[in-house]
Amino acid sequence: MQGVILAAGKGKRLQPITFHRSKAMAPVLGKPIVERVMDELIASGVDEIVVVASPDDEELVRYFSRQSALRDRVRLVYQPERLGMAHALQCAAPLLHGEFVLCACDNLVPAEQAEKLMARWQAAPQPNAVLALMEVDHDEVSKGGIVAMDGPWVTRIVEKPRPEEAPSNLYSMALYAFSPRILDYLPYVPRSPRGEYELQDAIQALIERDGRVCGVTVTGRLTLTTPEDLLDINCRYLSSAGGTCLPAPDAVGPQSSLVAPLFVEHGAVIGPDCVVGPEVYLERDCRIGQGVTLRRAIILRGSVVPDGTSIQDQVWGPGES
């Protein structure tokens, strides 16, 4: 089964992290978040992945051409303009040859939740689509697609309704399994008032003309929108088994203390008399000065933390002071 990951977004709310990289390449313990999403898809049965990227994302192209262990499973296609999810999927359509899973690069769903969606996809009666649904508070229904249900079947999907017009509190996450039939409706999706081609319009056409669109409720996703989200995601991974990666002894100054869990990439240098950890991630080529204290923090690549600085609950990037 193929997977499609939408990774052309700019990530404005993730600034300053996205000043020098795309949201898809935001780091999660030594891997870009888009590759962490791939790991979860592969664990649930996907064997080939199409990534829809911006043509300007040179780092992503370089990474999946030369560095990633998954590069032989990944094919890249480009979305020249950010015109919505339906448009992004249409860019990927020429590379799709059957059923597929579609997800966004900024949503991490545990493998067992993705497996739940796949189990429903494989069950009889065979659906045309399975949507991953999550219950949200009533005041959050205007943030995305909300569905109406008749038993296990989705009868309607509404993009960002007003709370008083929402058909339920079931939010359609950016995780779907589709038959290739959905591709037939993409050319007919109208441009929305906000200037994008909405995937929900194609799904609604699928519901009305072919039916058999069902939903499964999932829990436990991690979503990347802000720097605080990136810190939380990395801390969750640090807390999991195998989350700790210690630096080489010659990269740590005398009298410095390292407190697990922490993850230190090759090329990071820690000065003397520091306390680093717990829940700290140092990207490559960062420099930690003398007498620095780091707790629950990310220090991005190329950053310099001055002597005597104390950082907690923060993502620290180049140019910080």
Overview features:
321 residues, alpha/beta, Spore Coat Polysaccharide Biosynthesis Protein SpsA, Chain A, UDP N-Acetylglucosamine Acyltransferase, domain 1, 2 domains, 9-stranded mixed beta sheet, 6-stranded parallel beta sheet, 22 strands
CATH class placement of the largest domain: Alpha Beta
Please compute the radius of gyration using only Cα atoms. 21 Å
Terminal residue distance: 48 Å
Fraction of residues in helices? 10-25%
Low-confidence stretches: none
Number of strands: 22
Supply the CATH architecture of the largest domain.
Alpha-Beta Complex
Major sheet attributes: 9 strands, mixed
What is the H/E order?
Answer: EEEHEHEHEEHEEEEHEEHEEEEEEEEE
- Number of alpha- plus pi-helical segments: 6
Strand content: 25-35%
Mean pLDDT: 94
Description:
By secondary structure, the chain is α/β, with parallel strands linked by helices. It folds into 2 domains: 2-225, Spore Coat Polysaccharide Biosynthesis Protein SpsA, Chain A (Alpha-Beta Complex), CATH 3.90.550; 237-316, 3 Solenoid (UDP N-Acetylglucosamine Acyltransferase, domain 1), CATH 2.160.10. It has 6 helices and 22 strands. The chain has helices at residues 33-43, 58-67, 85-92, 111-122, 199-209, 227-239; strands at residues 2-7, 27-28, 31-32, 48-53, 74-78, 100-104, 107-108, 129-135, 145-150, 153-159, 170-178, 213-217, 222-223, 257-258, 262-264, 269-270, 275-276, 280-282, 287-288, 293-299, 304-305, 310-316. Strands 1, 4, 5, 6, 8, 9, 10, 11 and 12 form a 9-stranded mixed beta sheet that branches. Strands 14, 15, 17, 18, 20 and 22 form a 6-stranded parallel beta sheet that branches. A 3-stranded parallel beta sheet has the order 16-19-21, with no helix packed on it. β4 (48-53), α2 and β5 (74-78) form a beta-alpha-beta unit. α3 (85-92) crosses α5. The longest helix is centred in the last third of the chain and has 13 residues, at 227-239. The protein is elongated, with a radius of gyration of 21 Å. The protein starts with a strand and ends in a 5-residue tail after the last strand. The model has no long low-confidence stretch (mean pLDDT 94).
